[in-house]
Amino acid sequence: MKGSIQKGFTLIELMIVVAIIGILAAVAIPAYQDYTKRAHVTEGISLAAGAKAAITEYYASQAAWPATNAEAGLPATISGNAVTSVAVGTDGVITVTYNSKVDATNNTIEFAPTDSNGGIQWSCDGGTVDDKFRPANCR
User: In the chain, helix, strand, coil percent, each to 5?
Assistant: First the structure.
């Protein structure tokens, strides 16, 4: 009696593989979306770094905080791929406004400077961006 030789996969085996791939995709896609939103938030933080330097320089020479981009020596419009604007406001507070690529349109992160014995300390816990998209030092 000759035994039969199996050539390929059964329908059940293929369905199990498809189900496993579906489960992995269901877990991976939301995690990847959060990752990309965090990357967009980081873009705004990088754009704010130039404004931080300008505000620090202004404070060192004028002993006061600038209230506008122009006063700090910055361009009127600073924007990026996910950033609508980087604006200097009252008391040197930098507001980074994001577009819809970060959770919702017009979400913000605020960087507030304080004079700490001649050094400038920046806090970035203000604004409306959800904590899960912020870097650890801004939560």
Answer: 45, 20, 35
pTM, two decimal places: 0.80
Enter the tokens of residue 39.
């990357």
- Per the CB < 8 A criterion, the answer to whether 113 and 120 are in contact is yes
Report d(CA 93, CA 113) in Å as an integer: 7
pLDDT tens digit string along 32-83?
888 899 999 999 999 999 999 999 999 999 999 999 999 999 999 999 999 9
Segment (H or E) for 119: strand 119-127
The CATH number of 11-138 is which of 3.40.50.720, 3.30.700.10, 3.30.1490.100, 3.40.50.150? 3.30.700.10
d(CA 69, CA 86): 9
